[in-house]
Task: structure prediction
Amino acid sequence: MTKLFVVGTGPGDAELVAPKARAAIKASTDLVAYGLYLDLLGDVCDGKVHHDLPLGEEINRARLALDLAAARKTTALVSSGDIGIYAMATLVFELLDRQLEGQETHPEWLDVEIDVIPGISAMQAGASRVGALLGHDFCTVSLSDLLTPWETIEQRIHCAGKGDFVISFYNPVSKKRDWQLNAARDILLQFRPASTPVLLGRQLTREDESITITTLGELDAKDVDMFTLVSVGNSESRHIVNGTKEWVYTPRGYKKKLSN
Amino acid sequence: MTKLFVVGTGPGDAELVAPKARAAIKASTDLVAYGLYLDLLGDVCDGKVHHDLPLGEEINRARLALDLAAARKTTALVSSGDIGIYAMATLVFELLDRQLEGQETHPEWLDVEIDVIPGISAMQAGASRVGALLGHDFCTVSLSDLLTPWETIEQRIHCAGKGDFVISFYNPVSKKRDWQLNAARDILLQFRPASTPVLLGRQLTREDESITITTLGELDAKDVDMFTLVSVGNSESRHIVNGTKEWVYTPRGYKKKLSN
Result:
């Protein structure tokens, strides 16, 4: 059998790693992942052959995982969060697609049995740490314009604003990109008030977690780095303060009444 | 201490329940949940006082959970999926908010320590079972018009279509609602081709799971019930067939090339 597990390990807290993800890693002889992700998992990675590749080598990481599995090494391709959300899973299927279309020369990939195991994504970890920010319709938008033109992203933010979705921005800034988040904020300010609650969640559920609740009007890219999730409430989201504890939640609907 | 755990237990597969969720249930003396969710969890629920309320009694379920915790019974309010996504978590904070605003008469609720534990949502389970449908920007839309007027929902679907988001419909139909899903389909057909892949995932990751890959043109509410997740790809999503195995994935971007 040739087997590839495609595994998401959640936001960071080992207690949020699904048993199924842990079992897949345990069953594998070879792991393809950033070292950092594996450090968070602990003992289960001991004794495995660990294949690392520099950041930015995403497609080669997916190729390597398929190659290893095709060579009959049970392999786990691992990422933090949900590997199906802005992550490696889609690259595996993009490569299979290319092989099926005759654009690759790896028919052996087609024999690999693939099992995708989802994980808890950053937006979910962030929402849970401050209450229930994702209580009603929401969307995610990646601000990376590496593979999607900025005009498309801009249009999408416009639609998300007009549709009054709660919005989580993935890849909000990078070393080379610093202006997109403020541009996104300015678009959203056309649709919802400056007082709209915003979550900045950095290193969520990890030891050095920091959580800031701010507002759309105060949102500034200078307060955000590549380890930060930015989630913007909808027009009904509420920031409440109970003594020393703060919460943000988005009501289930728009009628503002507590019926069933 | 008065403690309330607000716990999501994932789509159904016991192997997808986070250890943190299981530990919270174990630490509780009282569970507030539908019986069905607890059956999936097995032994960990043994010996707990189980409080059930009929479907439709959501707000009373949240009240009961706060009341029990305030009475110093360590309590877990439990739902399947992610309890922060279209589920009970937001009702707990809505009640706290009302108390802080003086619209309730339960100051004891404000002493309850609340810990929200996220879970894997149906859209993630569905995407993973067919590949990587959530590989790029996506949104969720609830088709229930109980608390949100249909005009708002309609506008939101329009925005989701125009923004070319992958869309997961929650509450796609119910016994009393059967026409909204087809109306949603017709809106989306203005923006993306009839060949767009659509996932119908029923009872995802459970014993009686059924998964159907269809197209937006073929999507029909008659094939969907209240246990079904409906996820519609974006204009770039691909349905690929490798022998007896089918996959759906959404590429990372719009440039249609495999660069990093």
